[in-house]
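Re: that backbone. Tokens:
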């Protein structure tokens, strides 16, 4: 086949060209199209996506993933400076909310957009980007340790920043993420990958966090100052994640 210009390559993705290059936020990703199935690298590991008629990328394994939004979140995370990751905890937490496409709504009612708990306890540390069609999903009991129901749609709609793309964001519960495959709220209730997970490093003071993507690869890390979440909460955060792909980097940092 003769060489094609980049604009022509992009247009021919829908026409199932054998190999093209797709630029998505952080970096160029290899895209392989075969009978409509697109193979795309996200956060270091290959994930299967399919192109719908309007060219929206759909994750065949986790179809609730708002892919464009997830990539935009990771791009924001990659742009956070050392100061933004190592300053006063409340400022750092606001930066994490902004990066994840969430508003800082500490005065809202729980269930109505309240995000004061986000990254502030052991559990609500998964930044999840889900498509609108799954935001109404509830926990039918499949996610253990989480209340049956767990209706989050109103909060997602109210607290999500629209500029990061279609779908919504939420800081979902990480309980169950240490199983393979993960059995947490993101992957089961919303059928979505996570944009990032906050893991407290199990060093002597549990004073450092690392952000990892859905494959457990490091996106950023910080050592904030000021009043951190309670030590017991930081320890419990690591305990529910340990022995999983998500704890690997935290353990490397702790043992360095």
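Recovered sequence:
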């Amino acid at each position: 086949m003769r060489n094609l210009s980049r604009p022509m390559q992009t247009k021919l993705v829908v026409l199932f060209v054998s190999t093209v290059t797709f630029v998505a936020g952080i970096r160029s990703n290899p895209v392989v199209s075969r009978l409509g199935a697109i193979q795309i690298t996200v956060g270091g590991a290959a994930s299967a996506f399919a192109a719908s008629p309007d060219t929206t990328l759909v994750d065949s394994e986790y179809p609730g993933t708002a892919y464009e939004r997830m990539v935009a979140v990771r791009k924001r995370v990659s742009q956070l400076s050392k100061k933004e990751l190592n300053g006063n905890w409340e400022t750092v937490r606001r930066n994490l909310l902004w990066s994840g496409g969430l508003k800082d709504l500490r005065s809202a009612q729980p269930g109505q957009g309240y995000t004061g708990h986000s990254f502030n306890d052991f559990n609500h540390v998964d930044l999840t980007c889900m498509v609108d069609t799954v935001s109404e999903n509830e926990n039918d009991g499949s996610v253990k340790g989480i209340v049956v129901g767990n209706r989050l749609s109103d909060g997602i709609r109210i607290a999500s920043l629209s500029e990061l793309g279609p779908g919504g964001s939420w800081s979902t519960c990480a309980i169950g993420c240490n199983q393979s495959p993960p059995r947490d709220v993101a992957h089961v209730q919303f059928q979505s990958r996570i944009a990032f997970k906050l893991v407290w490093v199990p060093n002597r003071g549990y004073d450092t966090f690392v952000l990892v993507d859905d494959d457990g690869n490091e996106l950023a890390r910080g050592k904030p100052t000021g009043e951190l979440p309670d030590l017991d909460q930081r320890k419990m955060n690591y305990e529910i994640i340990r022995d999983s792909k998500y704890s690997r980097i935290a353990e490397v940092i702790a043992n360095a």
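The longest helix spans residues 67-78. The longest strand covers residues 27-34.
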